[in-house]
């Protein structure tokens, strides 16, 4: 009798550096881990690699000054710029902001409130609800400081308006802030706009262009190399991370080739068809900090074909409480197993599926991997998953 369902292992690898043969490292590490820890391989096992080490091995880096050059080229050396809906992150956005500040003399920064798009707060929500302002208001920098200026983030201990303003002014650029959830409000100050939102990027850009603004999205900056720099033709600056004080690592470019290469190598070594994916941020939300962990443009930028689609599952609790309400013990278990084996292929919209998660497999698995590897010092940039596609009927 089988006692285990899904098993997830964080796999420790050597420290990955630029130019490393990542396909060989991942394959060899997984094989060695199986020998040292006594597990076998099966069809439909999953190997997942964090996007960070993929970008590092690619050498997909860009300097702040190179980003500045691309911005200046796209706006023809602007005297002033506006940015709309940047996320509030030292890791994700501070170097991008530095590059933008270097590209102009005056910068207008429009922030959404009470939080950015991924849940990072910018003010005390209790004060907001007890103030004259609503989520439809436009709050000037002076008004913000009068009512909310003493607010600091409970996790970082930082007020990001103060942090961003100091960063901008350190680049000899004049900084002005406003809070508004309507992107059109930036047009009161400038017609040159960089849209910085991630998951609503196309809508925001289209809306501002409809009002005659010159608009460039972060996803359109560094889509081509400049003097041999890194780039990402699909996502531009989205998904980038701070590497040093003057360099960013971009979202990986060669992930699809990598996952297919690793799948082929593992097939040759194990005889099994193992699915492989690259993952970034998991798409989950912290219930306390209210941060939605998806600052990358997608959870998985590359994966093998067996990871396409969504789960096809029934809700055991519903079946047990309704169809087999009078059964108990082994008889109940065997009846449910039979129900699983006989389940229809298309269960969408049926009561028997309610409560199962209607998300893509790559988003679910990527979230599992992100939680497993963490973002600190675990040293496990590879995650190995077994039994994910199994169910109660599998022995």
Oligomer: single chain
Tell the overall outline: globular
How confident is the prediction overall: mean pLDDT?
Answer: 90
Number of domains: 2
- By DSSP, the count of extended strands is 14
Element order: H for helix, E for strand: EHEHEHEHEHEHHEEHEEEHEEHHHE
| Integer-rounded radius of gyration | 24 Å
The helix/strand class is alpha/beta
How far the N terminus sits from the C terminus, by CA atoms, comes to: 7 Å
Describe the structure.
- This protein is an alpha/beta fold.
- The protein folds into two domains: 7-58 and 254-311 and 357-386, CofE-like (60s Ribosomal Protein L30, Chain: A, 2-Layer Sandwich); 61-249, no CATH class.
- It is built from twelve helices and 14 strands.
- Strand 8 (192-195), helix 8 and strand 9 form a beta-alpha-beta unit.
- 39% of the residues are buried.
- The model is unreliable at 351-355 (pLDDT under 50).
Helix and strand layout, with pairings?
Blueprint: E1 7-11, H1 22-37, E2 46-50, H2 51-58, E3 61-63, H3 64-75, E4 80-84, H4 94-102, E5 106-111, H5 125-129, E6 139-140, H6 141-148, H7 160-169, E7 174-179, E8 192-195, H8 201-210, E9 214-217, E10 241-244, E11 247-249, H9 255-270, E12 275-279, E13 302-303, H10 316-321, H11 329-341, H12 361-373, E14 382-386
Parallel strand pairs: 2-12, 4-5, 4-8, 5-7, 8-9
Antiparallel strand pairs: 1-14, 2-14, 3-11, 6-7, 10-11, 12-13
Question: Notable features of this structure?
Answer:
395 residues; alpha/beta; 60s Ribosomal Protein L30, Chain: A; 6-stranded mixed sheet; 5-stranded mixed sheet; globular
